[in-house]
Every structure is written in C-alpha cells, then in structure tokens.
Specification:
Blueprint: E1 3-4, E2 28-31, E3 34-37, E4 43-45, H1 48-73, E5 80-85, H2 93-100, E6 104-105, E7 114-118, H3 141-152, E8 165-171, E9 180-184, E10 192-196, E11 205-214, E12 217-218, E13 221-227, E14 238-242, H4 244-247, H5 250-263, E15 267-274, E16 281-287, H6 299-319
Parallel strand pairs: 5-6, 5-7
Antiparallel strand pairs: 1-6, 2-3, 3-4, 8-9, 8-10, 11-12, 11-13, 11-15, 13-14, 15-16
Amino acid sequence: MSQPVAASGSSARGAGSAGRRGFWFRDFRIRRGRVRVFDTGADLALDRTLVREAAIWLGYHLVVRARSWLLMLSGREGPRIWFTPNRPRPWYLVWSALAWLGGRVATSPQEADAHFAFEDATWAAPPSTPALNGQCPDISKSRVAEVFEQVFGYPLTVDPALWTGPAVEKGELNGAHDGRIVACPTPAEPGRCYQRLVDTSDGTFTYDLRTPCIGGRPAAVWIKRKPARARFSIHNLAVTLHRPEAVFSVDELASIERFCAAMNLDWGGLDILRDRLSGRIYIVDVNKTDVGPIIALSWRDKLRSTELLAAALARLLERSSAAPRRRGSSRAV
C-alpha cells in the first residue's frame, strides 16, 4: 500500500531507501538564534522575518495537504513516485506538486508509477535504476557555468587573477547562499568559483528570474525583487508569477531547453539573471531539490504556481522512461 503524500514527512522509509526518518525538526538544528539546515549546510538567522515566512508557508502547506486528502477520499488516485535515496519533505516543490495531483509517495519501487532521484546534495551518485534526475549528478556552480557557456556561447566564469572590475565569488555547494562581490584582479581562493557580476539592478532593486523547469521546459517564472544591497539574501521584497513566454524570447526559451537537456535535468529550478546593459540572460544556479513556492508570492500566485507545476509533472510522468508499469495495475503512467 502506498503512503499519502500528506503524511510522507513522518513516515518510515520504504525498503531499500536511505531516506530520512522521523519528524521534520530532525532536518535542522536551532541554536543560539541560528537555524542550520543539515542537508545543505545553510545557516540562517532565526529572526522575525524567518518566523513570519515559516508561518506563511505552514498556511500554504495546510491547503495543499487538505486538497491531497480530499482527492484521496474521493477516490481520485494520482501517481505514485518512489524517491531515492531520500524522500522529499513538504517544503520541497515536488512534494506539493505531487500532492496537488492527489499523488502518493510510493513505499516500494515495485508499486511506483515513476522513480525519482532525490537528494539535497551538490554531487550525487546515479541511482541503480532509471529515475527522473538520475542522470544529473553534478549541479556545482562550476558545472552549471561550464554547461551554460557550451549552450549559450558566452561565458559566465571569469579568472579572478585576470579579470578587472567586480566579480561574484561563491562556493560550489548548492543552497549555501554564500555569494559575495569581490574586486578583481585578486587571487583565487581554493574551493571557490568566480563569475561575472550580472547587473540586474535599477539602482534600488535587483531582479532574479527564478524558473522552475519540468521535463526540460520552463513551467513558470517567478520574478523576485530584492534590495540592491542584499542581492544574495534568501528573502525577497516581492515576487510575481509570469508565463515563460512573457519573460523570455523564443530563442532564449530554446536555449534554456537545450541547457536542461545538456544537464540531464528532468525537474529543477534555474536561477536566471538578465543583464541590464546587454540584455543577455545568464543561468547562474541549478537546484534539483528546490523548495517553495516562494513565500513572497501572493496566495493566488502560490496556488496557481502549484497548479502549473503539478500539470507539468503529470505531463512528465506520462512520457517518462523512468515511469514503469505499476505491478498489479493496468495503467502505465
């Protein structure tokens, strides 16, 4: 029997999974006014902003959870996905999209409609069987910049010893939020990568184009507005939902799709920046285990975003080679 998505956060693992056990609080530690997330190493200040955002997310989660249970009780069975080596917690986008479909987290690979490689890590070992995102083992900043240059034909990476002017220095790890602006030329620090400073500022604010991609195609775009002085912050002043074709040109959309194909990315969020002077776009980050929807979205945009991602997930499962026929079922997703 499969487990309802709404209960996945506290369930035991299925056989063969190295996923997490226990309640959500085991995923992070609160100490001395800081919150440390174990998977990513992110270290956040436990301030009023974080508490307020957690409360907003909880309200959203309760709506998604309620819809999931209502669909289950009405007999509208959604897809079952086996996640390996970890199961997504409710704050991950794939959890919400699956729940919105009335889907379940499968408790064994045999009963699943699809397999999904899910690990909140920068480098991951490929799974032993075909799985969504299973061929995307490396999302380090250097790998993202390398593939970006191959696809788009212009570089993101700079050599800090030769570059003149400001550049962005950041670590390789996913979700660390450790970027900072440095003046070049400067010696390269071990374990750090260096990228051109993409100017998205209007003088007061900076704008990021967060683009969830499913099945290798953008499903939505969230335009995030932040103070220019806090461009690397995880907090946003405002976020709005847009259709991809309203933000990117036809050629840009085609290049984004080629980038996803080159990364072997079936599901993930892209951080895209548009340079104010040149008009060019730069993909600066890839996240296979993206959380959300973004807190600063309006309630209407949160629910609409979830609906869009759920529909894209359903289409992905319909055509995925990682979607085996469920044992004992006449339906192949």
